[in-house]
Amino acid sequence: VTSLAFNFAISALLGGGLLIYASLRTDEIGQTVRSNGNNLYEAIKGAGLPVVPRLAVPGVVDEKLEEFNLMSINDMEEEEYDGYSGAAVGGTLLFFVLSIFISGTLDTVTDEILPSIVTDLLVSALIGGGA
């Protein structure tokens, strides 16, 4: 499980960070990444999964972003912000899934974690589903 936590941390830094950067670009690449991120974020919200509320960044961060010709997070419209958030989630998820295959932790997932999840779901369905 420790290797999965490490993989997730690296995935958030690399995958999430890369797509966050791309989503903040003001060119066509940024628009495409935000559009796809928005689609993912809408699917997450539509599925009833929890989402992180909108957070403002300190002014000094916004100034640095604008210095590098990137979008201001605080000035984004809701759809742009959802695209930015979805890009972060998508990048992290993509890199995390890839890291499971590359690092060889797939056995840990299938042998230890997946059976626990299935057991938890079955018990929850039997006990909670009948209520």
Characterization of this structure:
- The protein is built from five helices and no strands.
- It is mostly helical.
- The model has no long low-confidence stretch (mean pLDDT 85).
Give the helix level as a range of percent. over 70%
What gyration radius follows from the Cα positions, in whole Å? 18 Å
Principal-axis shape equals globular
How many angstroms separate the termini? 33 Å
Weakly predicted, low-confidence segments: none
The DSSP helix count reads 5
Order of helix and strand elements from N to C terminus: HHHHH
Q: Report the sheet-strand fraction.
A: under 5%
Structure described in brief:
This protein has helices spanning 2-24, 28-46, 59-67, 78-103, 106-128. With 131 residues, the protein is mostly helical.
Please specify the SSE layout and strand pairing:
Blueprint: H1 2-24, H2 28-46, H3 59-67, H4 78-103, H5 106-128
Can you tag this structure with a few keywords?
131 residues; globular
